[in-house]
Write a structure and sequence with these properties.
Length: 311
């Protein structure tokens, strides 16, 4: 029986706290699928106020009251139906509001940001929902680096911002973890607590809300091979599969899993050399844990587009 491609876009949600790795993961997946076939929407563009205005009114960017949540809902519904949207623009470099831009639907749409799962209406629009949950020390390192190198902040300003937001993250961001199909946690290995890049470990919580690929043929009990899969329980006590990938996994071992996943992604063969890049400007910096994470999510995107489930 032939596979029928969906006529409407496949929509992936990537949600997480500030500097949790959303943009890196988003652009990596877009490269695999082909940039010309992927539209990217950032829900942070729907801020009501500029950075200066937020400073005056004491409202953080994480607070739904400072974002056009109803417009995000409306735009997600339009994209689901294959209709274009006129998306607002927020300039992260200087914190100003810019000219809106038209986003035309493409076969794949990635919606990333702080508040993408805030309401039921928004959550119903996604085919695949990912939540990024890096260790807090790691996230702080990433945030300081990003905001001081790309967003015109000083280190002191970033630390002050983190302090102001310490109640907003658990109130508005962390509860969205509950609604994800996959929870992804990057964290440094015990042998190198200062690691923040290529050799980070990653843990995937795979919930039964998606039909995940059968990885058992290449996984062995124990972590000595760099891969570990087990049945576990999430914070709420519900059963989940837990897949852990060592940041120091041997290249040969990582390639076995990559090749298995590539056989399931025939559409993406032409861009496989871009998988796992930490920065598109540094093509030789490759993280196997990131590469496998990108591929596992891309697998679900392709399966959703073809209308089939994992075997």
């Amino acid at each position: 029986m032939p596979l029928n491609r969906r006529k409407t876009p496949v929509i992936l949600g990537i949600v997480g706290d500030s500097a949790s790795g959303k943009t890196t993961l988003t652009h990596g997946i877009a490269q695999i699928l082909g940039a010309d076939r992927v539209a990217i929407v950032c829900t942070d563009d729907y801020h009501m106020y500029s950075r200066a205005e937020r400073a005056k009114n004491g409202l953080s960017a994480l607070d739904p009251r400072g974002n056009y949540i109803d417009i995000i809902e409306q735009h997600l519904r339009l994209l689901c139906a294959g209709q274009p949207i006129l998306k607002p623009v927020y300039n992260h470099e200087d914190g100003t509001l810019g000219r809106p831009e038209c986003v035309a639907p493409k076969p794949y749409i990635i919606v990333e940001g702080l508040l993408g799962y805030t309401t039921r209406a928004m959550r119903d629009c996604y085919d695949v929902k990912v939540y990024l949950d890096p260790s807090e020390d790691l996230r702080v390192k990433w945030k300081i680096h990003r905001d001081t190198t790309k967003r015109s902040y000083t280190t002191e300003e970033v630390i002050k911002s983190l302090e102001k937001r310490k109640e907003d993250s658990p109130a508005y961001i962390h509860p969205q973890r509950t609604f994800a199909d996959i929870v992804i946690r990057f964290f440094p290995p015990e042998s190198n607590r200062e690691e923040s890049g290529v050799h980070l470990n990653v843990r995937h919580i795979l919930r039964p809300t998606l039909p995940h690929p059968d990885l058992s043929p290449i996984l062995e009990t124990g972590t000595q091979n760099g891969l570990h899969l087990e049945l576990s329980r999430d914070k709420d006590g519900k059963p989940v599969d837990l897949l852990e990938i060592s940041g120091n996994i041997m290249e040969k071992r990582a390639k076995v899993l990559e090749e298995m996943l590539w056989t399931l992604l025939p559409e993406a063969q032409h861009l496989r050399q871009n998988v796992g890049q930490l920065d598109i400007r540094e093509p030789r910096i490759i993280s196997h844990s990131l590469a496998l994470t990108q591929l596992l999510i891309t697998y679900h995107m392709v399966k959703a587009a073809l209308g089939v489930h994992a075997i």
